[in-house]
Amino acid sequence: MNWLTQMAGANTSFKAPFIFNGTLYGDIACNKYGPNDPALGGVNMQANIVCRATLNNGQQYTILAADSPNPATANPINSLQTTTYTVKKDSTNPELLPLELYLNPNLTLQVTDFDRWYNVPVTLVARCSDKPGISDGDECACASQTSSDAALWSPGVPHTQFGPDIMYYARTISTSTNNITAQVKDTAGNLSNISPQISLNIDTQPPIVAITETGS
Q: Most buried residue, 14, 35, 69, 111, by CB count within 10 Å?
């Protein structure tokens, strides 16, 4: 399809020849709209040109174009678009699943008692779930870092089946630590809830040997 070339006309309404594969099919009616005009439903370029024509069978079709500074000039319309798309930023918050606790870094020995004392470093795991929604695209998923205390948590590890829509982050606790919380985010910057505070007790005190005399 060749470019549409504008003909002289008013600033907001004009005629343009419709050329397809080198064949002129006559003039079609065009209108110019300003940026962010709600009538276009999402086509918000610097110069929004909408042209409409009727096929031989009576069906009307619409051609959307742009990049024309003034419809009153004979400058060509330098781009064509036949479908409108409305782009919306994801506004759905990801979900922070309950924190998990493991006795080993490869996450095979899970424990559920957060109140007991442990004699080895433990691994705390936060999981993010960003369920696909109406506004979600392929690139909208859990972020690669947690939202809070990112330096203390590992980079996110995507789920082997569902990819980054489910991501986990690990944190090694080597000494007793109080008031631990976690919060995750998605790639659009939406934040999850903050987890309830937990405290983990790690026994790092070596045993003390006391020598006593029996008097014998």
A: 14
